[in-house]
Design brief:
Layout (H helix, E strand, L loop, with lengths): L2 H19 L3 H16 L5 H17 L1 H6 L15 H36 L13 H31 L1
Length: 165
């Protein structure tokens, strides 16, 4: 399979997931508004607070690969911006290999174990409501996997940039 095809498939997947996951913000806002009103009248709920935490965490995590694709993550380029474009690409490539991939591989491997354990015991929260946690814990390895995929696409683009000149 050609490099551009691999990049297109990865980026299409992360774009599609990002566009779907962004809609979690709407129920999250409604839920928080509902809870604010409930608290104002003196009858807060346990479940709305917990669902809002799960929605926010899911929203934040699952948009990470989408953010990487669109260069939305913070980067510190105070030093690297003084270098040529080729040198910047080389430094980015080294960063992906030395920092990015090891870290997200760690999160993927340990996240799989974390999610597996939660599914085996059908883990629930320790609150009175006791909502299921195994679904939310599955988001950790899913996020890591999507970030690793997007990282592969970024590395291919960087390598192409370096080789072309």
């Amino acid at each position: 399979m050609e490099h551009s095809t691999v990049i297109q498939k990865i980026e299409y997947t992360n774009e599609w997931i990002g566009k779907i996951v962004c809609f979690l913000a709407a129920p999250l806002c409604l839920l928080i508004a509902f809870e604010v009103i409930r608290r104002a009248v003196g009858s807060p709920t346990i479940w709305s607070y917990e669902i809002s935490l799960m929605l926010f965490g899911s929203h934040f995590m699952l948009l990470a690969a989408y953010g990487l694709k669109h260069k939305a993550h913070a980067s510190i380029d105070i030093i690297s911006r003084r270098f040529s474009e080729k040198t910047q690409c080389i430094l980015s490539l080294i960063s992906y290999i030395v920092l990015f991939f090891p870290m997200w591989t760690f999160f993927f491997i340990f996240g799989l174990g974390f999610a597996y354990d939660a599914w085996v015991c059908m883990e629930t929260s320790w609150t009175m409501w006791g909502q299921p946690l195994y679904i939310v814990k599955t988001i950790i390895p899913v996020t890591a996997f999507l970030l690793i995929l997007q990282g592969v696409a970024e590395v291919i683009k960087l390598a192409d940039s370096i080789w072309r000149g």
